[in-house]
Predict the 3D structure of the following.
Amino acid sequence: MPAEQPGKLIVITGPSGVGKGTIVSLLLQRYPQLRVSVSATTRQPRPGEIEGVDYYFLSKKDFETAILNQELLEWAEYAGNYYGTPKAQVVKQIEDGNYIILEIELAGARAIANIFPEARRIFILPPSIEELEQRIRIRGKNSEESIAQRLEIAKQEIAASDEFDFQIVNDDLESAIAQLETAIFSLIDTS
Ligand code: 5GP
């Protein structure tokens, strides 16, 4: 593993519904040198999600085979489904000298910290739990049970946010992006 190339890996974590996806896609539009890793998941696609773009949607059996074959850099169970980072694409991007963003939950972020201690880890916070619940409901793509589960996990994740190098509150989108740019460009400048 290319541990001698510090800081190429950027981990972005934060509760479901906090707006990580929106922030990351705007950042990618502005900075073509950034790449994002496409995860594998056993969750059902949401309306509009595209195979190979949003996720690789796998059956439970195929996901378990990928775990056994050690094809995943990290994986975790989240709200009843598996999520994991395909190893090959991340290793290739790092070898090619690209900056690669992983948008993953807490257990995965902790696993990456063990494998790549030099990774820059950023946590996106909601302005409040009430606002987070509102955002998950507005997205309108989760059942009541799934909303309750996601809010419960969110509280646990937020409690661990100080493990990260940067904490950014996604209150105003542009301001959150500006803070993320600072976090990433300070990384680019020093590498
Ligand atoms: P969602 O179902 O809302 O797309 O994602 C649920 C959670 O899984 C989010 O916190 C998201 O960041 C996380 N996630 C997505 N891909 C991965 C992955 O490859 N590994 C891990 N550990 N978490 C992931």
